[in-house]
Amino acid sequence: MAELEADTSSATPVDIPSSPGTAAAAEEAREVQRRGLSGRLRTVDVIVAVVAASGPIAAVGGYIPLIIVYGNGSGAPAALVAAALLLIVFSAGYTAMTRYMTNPGALYAYVTAGLGRPAGLAASCLAIVTYGSFLVGVYAFFGLVTDNLVQNTLGGPAIPWWVYGLACWVAVTVLSYLQIELSAKVLMVALTAEIAIIVVWDVVTISQGGATGLDLGPFTWGQFSQGSVGLAMLFAMGLFVGFETTAIYREETQNPARTIPRATYSAVALMGILYAVAAWVLVMAVGTDKITAAATADPAGLFSTTVGHYAGRIAQDVTAILLVTSTLAGQLSCQNVLARYLYSLGVDGILPTRFGQAHDRHASPHRAVALVSSVVLALLAVLITVGGDATTIYAQFGGLLFYGLLLIITLTSLAILVFFLRNRHLEAGIWARYLSPGIALVALSVICYLGTTNFTILSGGSTAIAVTFVAVTWGLALAGAGYALILRRTRPHVYRRIGRNS
Predict the structure, then answer these.
(1) In whole angstroms, what is the distance from residue 483 CA to residue 475 CA?
(2) What b/e sequence results for 56-92 when a residue is b if at least 16 CB atoms lie within 10 Å of its CB, and e otherwise?
(3) Residue 130: which of 406, 448, 420 has the closest Cα?
(4) Residue 340: closest CA among 239, 238, 251
(5) Crossing angle of helices 117-148 and 390-422, rounded to 10°
(6) Tens place of pLDDT for every residue, the chain, 502 residues?
(7) 197 CB-near residues (< 8 Å, 6+ apart)
């Protein structure tokens, strides 16, 4: 605890006494800041980037059936509502703390401000593992859905998944290297089309009365509490991946003090409504008594099948196309997030400072983008060389994404609570200061426990892989904390810049 207190005493912005080392560090930080990111992102632009990261079509078609299969069956819509409400509760403390944060390193900076630099660097390592696993896994998924589109919709030949995966890698690398506004425009087009087809399917299915008529049973306590509520909540939370990344874009927004809170609440609300209604329509489309069996028999194809049944073949083909664009949009958004995590580490001096520099023309974190793309490509090369199965790769790395995300948000809830306890003079109501992070911490801790004890399911059924993934996740987090302690002794000027909150 003494260590924690020592590291969190500078949670609010204060000046560090000048010394030759700190003076040089300050000058270097100012030079990096002069080369910092720039942009004119509005609230809607940030919302688009965040929601696109969840991939609405992929979420509805790929993950809602898993809530039904492994969670609480027909109670999936209620689980999604509960997950959205929990994240809104968390966001109250999160956005209140945003007012006092100047670092675009997202949760990495928040954990640093609340729990100290070692914990902050540990959280950064967790974030890198989380988003990096998403990128690797979804390139495999992209190969699957594109091959399905080419064969079943376009009548083309069967091509190995990794050919499409590598093509996606090239597109994502190029777009993320360019200025962020260009990426936002690409995401807006894809996101608009995805939401449109989901809404059309909702309306058509509802207008036809579903399989046996419409009812609100899936939102009742009886159906919510059936089956495994814990796993239902874990999968439901996973559908909101990316909501926490709004703060990463604060250096690229016109008015971060207003834009970031608005974007956070709006993104959670939009995803919550979109997914909860879609889950309810899916249950109604098949029938409350048949939905679990149907989802178990064909989880990946259930959504597409119901679209074809209620909206026709053309709509089904459009859905297949949008599933590909949704995956591409999600990859692009995730690449932007991970690159900005590494950009923050570069600015802080944890990574070489060249990774904390923005492109002179595009104003993008181009060197961080190159680093992310290179590492992901190397991992893909290994998986391709050993003949990895695309479905298995996607399931296993997707499980690591869900698990890592929950750990990061849980740690951030604790950081927010500690931050306001240590800084009672800061303006914030009791709800945002104590109740919001406290409630979120308890609820998220329970879900994290369930995720740890059930990681075999999340990792595709392999106990060995589950143990390895959990060990690697915790090991890298501990390594990050340990490296911070080493920096405190060997490079104190770099240590002071971790999180850029002092």
Answers:
(1) 12
(2) bbbbbbbbbbbbbbbbbbbbbbbbbbbbbebbbbbbb
(3) 406
(4) 251
(5) 150
(6) 333 333 333 333 333 233 333 333 334 334 444 445 555 778 888 888 778 767 788 889 878 988 898 788 999 999 999 999 999 999 999 988 887 876 655 677 889 889 999 998 998 888 888 888 889 988 998 998 898 889 888 888 999 999 999 999 999 999 888 865 555 676 677 778 888 999 999 999 999 999 999 999 999 999 999 988 888 888 898 888 778 778 777 777 777 778 888 889 999 999 999 999 999 999 999 999 999 999 888 777 788 889 989 999 899 898 888 888 888 877 887 888 788 878 878 887 888 888 888 887 877 788 888 999 999 999 999 999 998 888 778 777 877 787 888 888 999 999 999 999 999 888 888 998 999 999 999 999 998 888 788 777 666 667 887 788 888 889 989 999 999 999 999 999 888 888 765 4
(7) 57, 307, 315, 318, 319, 322
d(CA 247, CA 108): 10
Angle between helices 313-348 and 43-54 (to 10 degrees): 110
- Concatenated DSSP letters of 113-160: HHH-HHHHHHHHHHHHHHHHHHHHHHHHHHHHHHHHIIIIIS------
Q: Are 264 and 92 in contact, with CB atoms under 8 Å apart?
A: no
Paired with 253 in beta bridges are: 41
Q: What Cα–Cα distance (Å) separates residue 225 from each residue in 222, 228, 292, 453, 499?
A: 6, 8, 15, 20, 41
Q: Alpha-carbon distance 9 to 55, whole Å?
A: 40
Whole-number Å distance between alpha carbons of 223 and 279: 13
CA distances from 468 to 95, 455, 479 (A): 35, 10, 16
> Rounded CA gap, 134 and 112, in Å?
24
> Residue 446 in contact with residue 82, Cβ under 8 Å?
no
Q: How many residues does the chain have?
A: 502
Q: The tokens of 263 are what?
A: 């974007």
Distance from C-alpha of 151 to C-alpha of 270, rounded to nearest angstrom: 33
Q: Which secondary-structure segment (H or E) carries 263? A: helix 256-286
* Residue closest to 404 by CA, chosen among 47, 75, 61, 108: 108
Query: Token match 């919001």: residue?
Result: 436
Angle at 152 between CA 148 and CA 154, to 5 degrees: 100
What are the residues whose beta carbons fall under 8 Å from the beta carbon of 101, sequence distance 6 or more?
109, 110, 113, 247, 250, 501
